[in-house]
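Researcher: We plan to redesign the surface later, but first we want a full-length starting point. Tokens attached.
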């Protein structure tokens, strides 16, 4: 099974993966050993920088008894001009499944079309990041007991942010109402907004973050992505535009969750880290069980109902 966008999963399939991930929590924490993927090899292909996604996939595979091959542009034949097609042909001979992050939108689909092994999209330019969406849904469900009908505020770089592109579509399918907070230059692409509205999603857009906090169930912060800007001067105009600190949360209800795909720059002040609203570090860990569940599903490996 490939996962290129969240459209590759039905709602029921998404929930089933989240339930599998919950079963795998003790394995993800190293409390029990479950070598379901022993003898399997994961190809980790990262042509853009990554900490959490790359390491959590590697941890997930190794916790399940599998092996990992790591490849990046630096130190590989990509630097010599090897095409993505040729790289994928090589990886298909070495690995049973591959994860790819690439700066070019559409690269993950291209890779999936080139080979027979399952391909998981770990981010394609400003396109999609479905495995991040799965761990985000898992985290929201962990905090609220459901992912249906919540009021979610997406904040920051909504133009280039592939995490919010994938997450907004998934939340819409589960009946969430979305408030999109950004400066005008970083608004959610209008084709995505149109799709959300045509699907019946309640969507509003604003540049005022603070006014959205009293009614929010989830506030999903993102950094302004300097590397996506073609013009440094344009980046400087919006850098640091949204910063949350603990004093901003006095009107928020007690179980409001603050999430962030990380890395953060200055979007969330350290004063929030010790509050009950801070979910971003738990969110980062949740990449391990959700990606464990996805690796098993993609490779056709059944997860036991009871894990001791």
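Model: Full-length starting sequence:
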């Amino acid at each position: 099974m490939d996962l290129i966008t969240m459209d590759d999963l039905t709602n029921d399939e998404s929930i089933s993966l989240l339930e599998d991930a919950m079963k795998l929590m003790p394995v993800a924490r190293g409390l029990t050993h479950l070598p379901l993927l022993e003898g399997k090899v994961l190809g980790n292909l990262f042509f853009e920088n990554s900490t959490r996604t790359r390491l959590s996939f590697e941890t997930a595979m190794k916790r399940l008894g599998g092996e990992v091959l790591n490849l990046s542009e630096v130190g590989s034949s990509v630097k010599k001009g090897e095409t993505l097609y040729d790289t994928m042909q090589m990886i298909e001979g070495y690995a049973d499944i591959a994860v790819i992050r690439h700066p070019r939108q559409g690269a993950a689909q291209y890779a999936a079309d080139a080979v027979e092994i399952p391909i998981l999209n770990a981010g394609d330019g400003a396109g999609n990041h479905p495995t991040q969406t799965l761990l985000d849904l898992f985290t929201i469900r962990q905090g609220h007991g459901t992912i249906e009908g919540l009021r979610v505020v997406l904040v920051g770089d909504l133009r280039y942010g592939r995490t919010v592109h994938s997450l907004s579509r998934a939340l819409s399918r589960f009946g969430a109402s979305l408030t999109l907070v950004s400066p005008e230059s970083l608004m959610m692409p209008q084709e995505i907004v149109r799709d959300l509205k045509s699907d019946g999603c309640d969507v509003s857009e604003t540049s005022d973050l603070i006014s959205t906090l009293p009614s929010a169930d989830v506030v999903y912060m993102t950094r302004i992505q300097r590397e996506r800007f073609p013009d440094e001067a344009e980046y400087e105009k919006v850098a640091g535009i949204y910063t949350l600190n603990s004093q901003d949360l006095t009107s928020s209800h007690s179980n409001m969750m603050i999430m962030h795909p990380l890395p953060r720059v200055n979007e969330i002040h350290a004063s929030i880290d010790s509050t009950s609203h801070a979910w971003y570090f738990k969110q980062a860990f949740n990449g391990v069980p959700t990606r464990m569940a996805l690796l098993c599903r993609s490779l056709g490996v059944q997860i036991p109902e009871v894990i001791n």
